[in-house]
Amino acid sequence: GAVVSQHPSWVICKSGTSVKIECRSLDFQATTMFWYRQFPKQSLMLMATSNEGSKATYEQGVEKDKFLINHASLTLSTLTVTSAHPEDSSFYICSARGSPGPNYGYTFGSGTRLTVV
Amino acid sequence: AQSVTQPDIHITVSEGASLELRCNYSYGATPYLFWYVQSPGQGLQLLLKYFSGDTLVQGIKGFEAEFKRSQSSFNLRKPSVHWSDAAEYFCAVGVNTGTASKLTFGTGTRLQVTL
């Protein structure tokens, strides 16, 4: 079945530094990737949607200059948290979809726990 | 805009007992509906999905869900719960507008299983 690999699974960084999270589709071409943020004991909040080769579409309230998303190939999307601060600490999850249309095939990565100290 | 409501934040059942997790949605057109399960510190695993056709959908791990349009519901059921089913369960509605398709999640239901 479809597999999405997300790395790293956890990262601790100092305040003010940048962190990059990778999301790879291992056995299919991901035309669309999604990035979510999940606070403890809460639901997933969609941050942005990215289509290969085009700019990401950010949800309202998400700072595009802080959360940089790159989807340069059909198998890789990255989320870079720039100038991270403690309030950016969260669980970030990516999801990939192989094709548009009604035949949904969302596959989720295993998530990245980011702690900013 | 679409929305999903999971009224039960936390449910506790005994191992071997039956389970029903509630999900109500709001969407103007025919929805695409999903149930996902999340273990602590992990991503989401798809249990089942409904697009069209038979309103009773079978999924993995013995789960099933029934789409009831009149009640705007898509409740998840399992006849006999196992201790390994303890996890967080999310209901989601999919909106397909071509390339802008995306999922909207409910707030989740945490399932605890007692032995």
Q: What multimeric state do the chains show?
A: heterodimer
Order of helices and strands of chain B: EEEEEEEEEEEE
Of all chain pairs, the largest interface belongs to: A-B, 28 and 26 residues
Q: Rg of chain B, please? A: 14 Å
Terminal Cα span of chain B: 41 Å
> What is the H/E order of chain A?
EEEEEEEEEEE
Strand percent estimate of chain B: over 45%
| DSSP strand count of chain B | 12
Instruction: Count the E strands of chain A.
Output: 11
Structural class of chain B: mainly beta
Overview of the structural elements:
The complex is a heterodimer of chains A (117) and B (115). Chain A is mainly beta. Chain A contains no helices and eleven strands. Chain A has strands at residues 4-7, 10-13, 19-25, 32-38, 44-51, 57-58, 67-73, 76-81, 90-97, 106-108, 112-116. In chain A, a hairpin with a 5-residue loop joins β5 (44-51) and β6 (57-58). Chain A is globular and about 35 Å long. The mean pLDDT of chain A is 90. By secondary structure, chain B is mostly beta strands. In chain B, the strands form three sheets. In chain B, strands 2, 5, 6, 10, 11 and 12 form a six-stranded mixed sheet that branches. In chain B, strands 3-9-8-7 form a four-stranded antiparallel sheet, with no helix packed on it. Chain B has a two-stranded antiparallel ribbon with strand order 1-4. The A-B interface holds A 4, 6, 32, 34, 41-44, 46, 49, 51, 57, 91, 93, 95, 97, 100-104, 106-111, 113 and B 32, 34, 36, 41-46, 49, 51, 90, 94, 96, 98-108, 110.
